[in-house]
Write a structure and sequence with these properties.
The chain is built from six helices and twelve strands. It is α+β, with helices and mostly antiparallel strands. The strands form three sheets. Strands 10-1-2-11-12 form a five-stranded antiparallel sheet, with helices on one face. Strands 5-6-7-8-9 form a five-stranded antiparallel sheet. Strands 3-4 form a two-stranded antiparallel ribbon. A hairpin with a 3-residue loop joins β7 and β8.
Length: 232
């Protein structure tokens, strides 16, 4: 992901003194940049906590370098009955991570006979990502749910967990964050939060060539999860 806060060059073979002499520094830098551009798809994913719940959303475009692979990619996921997630990065990594977390969360709920809280799901996802830190999943995640209060959690590829009231990840994150910060309040209604999320993603789509082709929205509140598709 070109504008992602992490760089995947740490996944490449370690440079030794011998290999450093054989490969010029400029050539190695160009290789790392090319690796990022080809293998890290762009995206804009947003999560906002409002008065009674959490709204998550992402656009649908999936790219590989400068090629648009799909205009109908899904980056919004139902993790449990009261927790949702939205991702930016490699689609395969997103899908497999959410699938594994969903299975383990369901097993824990069957064992404890109660729903798993959003912070527990976030910690579970964090542990699974940290276990893969030497060959990390190339995805950033915003996970959201409602317990004592609505909260979103941001996870990086190494498993860091950062709770917040709103967040955005992906190549369009800077544009989306600017729109959200200008209007966000904790007392927002669902309609206000949903409209703000859509506006932030639309703003990112206008300037980020790797984002576009519609928006998928997922709302999590005390009544469960609702999904919505918006065609642009």
């Amino acid at each position: 992901m070109t504008a992602s806060p992490f760089h995947v060059s740490f996944c490449l073979p370690r440079q030794t003194a011998a290999t450093s002499k054989k490969v010029p520094r400029t050539a190695r830098s160009d290789y790392h940049l090319a690796f990022n551009e080809v293998y890290m798809p762009g995206a804009t994913a947003v999560g906002i906590a409002y008065r009674d719940g959490v709204v998550l959303g992402a656009e649908r475009r999936i790219t590989l370098g400068n090629y648009v692979i799909s205009k109908a990619g899904r980056k919004v996921f139902r993790v449990t009955d009261n927790v949702g997630a939205v991702c930016a990065g490699m689609v395969a990594d997103m899908q497999n991570l959410v699938k594994e977390v969903s299975v383990y969360a369901k097993l824990k709920e069957l064992e404890s006979k109660k729903a798993l809280k959003p912070n527990s799901v976030a910690k579970l996802m964090s542990v699974m990502m940290f276990e893969r830190r030497f060959a990390p999943l190339l995805t950033q995640v915003i996970l959201g749910g409602v317990a004592a209060k609505p909260t979103v959690y941001v996870l990086d590829p190494l498993g860091s967990v950062i709770p917040d009231q709103y967040a955005s990840v992906g190549t369009g994150a800077e544009m989306a964050t600017g729109v959200i910060e200008a209007s966000y309040t904790q007392s927002m209604t669902h309609k206000e939060a949903r409209d703000l999320l859509v506006s932030s993603i639309k703003a990112a789509i206008q300037r980020d060539a790797m984002s576009g082709n519609g928006i998928d929205v997922l709302t999590v509140d005390h009544n469960g999860i609702k999904e919505e598709a918006i065609n642009l």
